[in-house]
Design a protein that fits this description.
The chain is mainly alpha-helical and 151 residues long. The protein has helices spanning 9-36, 43-54, 60-67, 71-83, 105-125, 131-149; strands at 58-59, 87-92, 95-103. A hairpin with a 2-residue loop joins β2 and β3. The chain is globular.
């Protein structure tokens, strides 16, 4: 049985306000670090590129699921990646109504430099946080997410 939580103002602040603030601050830092290295992608685009670097030739639906983005946002982000010649769409041979998304050579070339920027950013934002604190934070956020997703 879950223990009863006394929902006071501070707890509401943590999950309602701080989660959004932390996420936005990390995205701002990542965006600055990407621009500092003259990388032509945004933090949002990076989430897609990261999935594609692990294995491209995937559907837009799969990218939506992996990045927690809705279809209109994904379409806009992919349109920009295609316009920048970092990704391309190919008709899915198994279902002509859908496309598969692939990286271009230019998109593949960004992986190494971008990974360095991601590592630098993570070191900056998680500085001074112990492994145990990280594990506790991850577990808490996973439980919150699971509670929401059960509905």
């Amino acid at each position: 049985m879950a223990e009863h939580l006394d929902f006071n103002f501070d707890l509401q602040l943590v999950f309602a306000s701080m989660n959004g603030r932390v996420s936005a601050a990390i995205n701002r830092r990542l965006g600055r670090n990407l621009r500092a290295k003259d990388l032509p992608i945004t933090p949002e685009q990076w989430t897609i590129m990261d999935v594609l670097w692990k294995g491209d030739g995937v559907s837009q639906k799969y990218l939506c699921e992996m990045t927690c983005k809705d279809k209109p946002s994904m379409t806009r982000l992919l349109d920009n990646l295609v316009r920048q010649k970092l990704a391309k769409r190919k008709i899915n041979p198994k279902s002509r109504r859908s496309n598969l998304i692939y990286l271009t050579d230019k998109g593949k070339e960004l992986e190494s430099t971008t990974s360095d920027v991601i590592d630098k950013t993570l070191k900056e934002v998680f500085s001074g946080i112990s492994q145990e604190e990280m594990k506790n934070g991850q577990n808490t956020l996973r439980k919150v997410y699971d509670n929401i997703e059960e509905d």
